[in-house]
Amino acid sequence: MTTLVFVHGWSVTNTSTYGELPTRVQQRAAAAGLGLTIADLWLSEYVSFDDTVTMGDLVRGFDHALRDLHLLDSRFACVAHSTGGPVVREWLRAQRERPGAHSTIRLSHLIMLAPANFGSALAQLGKGSLGKLKSWLNHVEPGQRILDWLELGSAESLSLNLDHIHGGDPAAHGQFQFVLTGDRPDRALYDHINSYTGEDGSDGVIRVAAANLNARHAVLTRNSADTLALNVTQAPRSAFKLIPGASHSGDTSGIMTAGADHTVDSIVRCLRISDATGYAALCNDFDKENAARNQEPVELEPVGPFSPRVHIHDPRSLLIVRLTDEADEPLVDSRFLLEAGTPPNPDWMPQGFMLDRQANSRARHVISMFLNHALLAGSERIADPRDGRKTLRTAVQAHRPYSVNMQPADLTGLVHHAAANMRQGDDLMDVLGPHQTTVLDVVMPRKVREGIFRLTQVLTPRDFREPTAGSVIP
């Protein structure tokens, strides 16, 4: 490794955002014998606060900027924060799919800090009146096109992530990708108008599950009659590390803050990886460290003279559901119900399992659900850390199997859809992972009846504005 490029996130207007992180990484890497000098560090300055700028524009700009580095060995490593992660990943895809139009420079290590890989629930608010007012006060635009990409369930982000899920293993080809993300919001930065900034299961901006590349693509499609069978594809294994207590930004606990020793140490551990065997070993080490962190779920937030506010940091899952039919037509008004038990019953879902729902503003048939994985999987008793004899939450029993019930808006007519349930024996819990995202495509059978197209030998004029629906066309 001879060159390390730092890439910032959305709405950044000053390189002060990097703080002392580049210098500290250089010092720690040099001490570890990695041979990184100050002359090998480059800081990005890209424009995301212009409403005309798209992700594709940033990819072209990034590729052009890399050509100007005149790298001695035609390779570099990268540390990317927040939106910087998707920017670099989109460049990697463009480089792979259109090699003649992009440089042949090779990225060896991509270390993403709190990356918005599956987007952010805050993106919709950034596009709204509050975001526009903040942008106006800062004399910049919101960056509408980049926010479109960042919105949960956007077609652009899903395209990139589904390519990753169904693609090959980068580590097998000598390219190593890492996700390091904080697991606590900075309570001092909480916005009382915007509760997402204090959302448990996130770093105050990016949900832990939305950063993680260990994702799944599940498809519910017609099996027989009106039942839906579940098919699942798992992404290649990616290194994923929780940075204890780190938030998305801020001087106190931000993941890029100068004092974030845990972040710097983790970055250097990633940079030391040189082969697939070492990468797999680091994945194992990160998994063990994450499991240990999950054993410390309780946070006591000081509330002045009052009793502290209790936060239980259960592992969460992000479920992004796309509702379409066999003709790829969006089903906007259909009801998507989660059910539990046998026989399935929506009233049997565990209390408090659904934390948030958000429909994509440009594709209303795409809904992102933030779920409490611990409550769905079943959880042991959680004791009060101040007094182990006291209970903060009693043990929770799993209500498996979990299934889906689809109730389309159009149940009759020449073209309609029938209500459908998941196939017996399938369990939605099998596709949900802790701190992970699952993209679920629900593909409903499209019923077309005789009467939509007829041939007749009656030559006298005949009105067919009210056709008679016949049987379903096979």
Structure notes:
The chain is an alpha/beta fold and 474 residues long. The chain folds into two domains: 4-218 and 236-303, 3-Layer(aba) Sandwich (Rossmann fold), CATH 3.40.50; 315-448, Immunoglobulin-like (Sandwich), CATH 2.60.40. It has eleven helices and 21 strands. The strands form five sheets. It has a nine-stranded mixed sheet with strand order 12-17-19-7-6-20-11-14-13. The radius of gyration is 25 Å and the shape is globular. The model has no long low-confidence stretch (mean pLDDT 93).
Task: Lay out the secondary structure.
Layout: E1 4-7, H1 21-31, E2 41-43, H2 55-67, E3 75-81, H3 84-97, E4 106-113, H4 123-126, H5 129-137, H6 144-150, H7 155-166, E5 176-182, H8 208-211, E6 216-224, E7 227-234, E8 239-243, H9 261-271, H10 276-294, E9 298-303, E10 306-312, E11 316-325, E12 335-340, E13 354-359, E14 366-372, H11 373-377, E15 382-384, E16 387-393, E17 402-407, E18 415-416, E19 420-422, E20 436-444, E21 447-448
Parallel strand pairs: 1-2, 1-3, 3-4, 4-5, 5-8, 6-20, 7-19, 11-20
Antiparallel strand pairs: 6-7, 9-10, 11-14, 12-17, 13-14, 15-16, 17-19, 18-21
Helix pairs in contact: 1-9, 2-3
